[in-house]
Each structure stands twice: as C-alpha cells, then as structure tokens.
Amino acid sequence: MSNPKSEPSVSFLDDEPLPPEQSSWVAPPPGGGQSSPPPPTAFGAASAKTGAAKSKRGHRFEAEIDVAELDDRGRPVSTWTARGRELDRSRLAFMSRRMCYPGRQVIVAVHLIDSAPVPLFGKVHACEYEGEGLCRVELDLIEVPDEKPLRDWLDAISRRRGNRA
C-alpha cells in the first residue's frame, strides 16, 4: 500500500531534524539579528503623549448601579446590576458580569444613599474581561435623552429600589 520510493514524511513529533538541503530554515542575519530601535519621530512622540493621556484615570467611584442596554428603537432591553469604578466629566467605568459591545448605548442608574437614582447615559467605548467573571466597561457619557422609554425605566428602577428599602 505504501510506496517505498516516496519522500519521507516529517512530523513535529520527529526527533531527527531534516538534512540541511531539505530544511526550510533560514539562518538569522549576522550580529544576532538585533538592531537599535529607530529614533522617535513626531508620530512616535504623539503616540507616547496619547498613551500617557490614556493611562490617566478618573476619580474613584464606588457605587451600585443598574445598567440597561438600549435596543435599536432606543428602549431599555434588560437590566442588570454592576459596580462603579471610575468617573470623570466624560467617562464612566464600571465592573459588570455582562459584557457590552462597543458602540452600544447604555443607560445607568446610580444609587446614592437616601436619594433617587441618578441617571447617566452613554455609549460603550470599551469592554474588556478583567477576570473572575467580571468585565470592565467604559462609557463615553452623553446627555440623557428626554424620552418616555428612558423615563419609564428610571421610574421602575426607583419604585423597585423604594420597595427594597
């Protein structure tokens, strides 16, 4: 069944390497293949600045929040709880057991002590898995639209929270 004159097959499990004339391996360039990095350019300097700006974080923000993604018609679909992490004038970061796709619109109800929930609205900027079943979601905050489905959702959250207390 097997042809004795066929080329020998090679597997990554084989201990013996191929003879040099059959190998596709290429030797590294002289000098160990290491060269000095190129000097920084205006683009490299700009990207370093944006990297520093990106690492700047907002203020610590520890609060329980209710979150709901909006459907294509602008209505809250499902609600889940999350925990706030950072807040600044234009961004909110929170930890959630659910991921949110970048670009989706989200409404958030922030629960403060002895107060009605404060609504925040935004577009998901990033969502990354942090470990232990939690995702870090970052929102770009936008002014809360004055639409009936959002007001109804916030009223339902307020009533539900009022019944718990």
Keywords:
single chain; 165 residues; alpha+beta; Thrombin, subunit H; six-stranded antiparallel beta barrel; 2 helices; 7 strands
Write a compact overview of the structure shown.
The protein is an alpha+beta fold and 165 residues long.
Task: Describe the protein in words.
The chain has a six-stranded antiparallel barrel with strand order 2-3-4-7-6-5. Helix content is 19%, strand content 35%. The chain is built from two helices and seven strands; from the N terminus they run αβββββββα. The protein has helices at 42-55, 148-164, and strands at 59-60, 64-70, 76-87, 91-96, 105-111, 118-131, 134-142.
Number of strands: 7
CATH superfamily of the domain at 59-164: predicted glycosyltransferase like domains
Number of helices: 2
The major beta sheet can be summarized as:
6 strands, antiparallel, barrel
Give the low-confidence spans: 41-55
Strand content: 25-35%
Neighbour order of strands in the largest sheet: 2-3-4-7-6-5
Give me the oligomer status. Answer: single chain
Task: Supply the CATH architecture of the domain at 59-164.
Answer: Beta Barrel
Helix-strand topology string: HEEEEEEEH
The CATH class designation of the domain at 59-164 is Mainly Beta
User: Kindly, what is the distance between the CA atoms of the first and last residues, rounded to a whole number of angstroms?
Assistant: 80 Å
Helix content: 10-25%
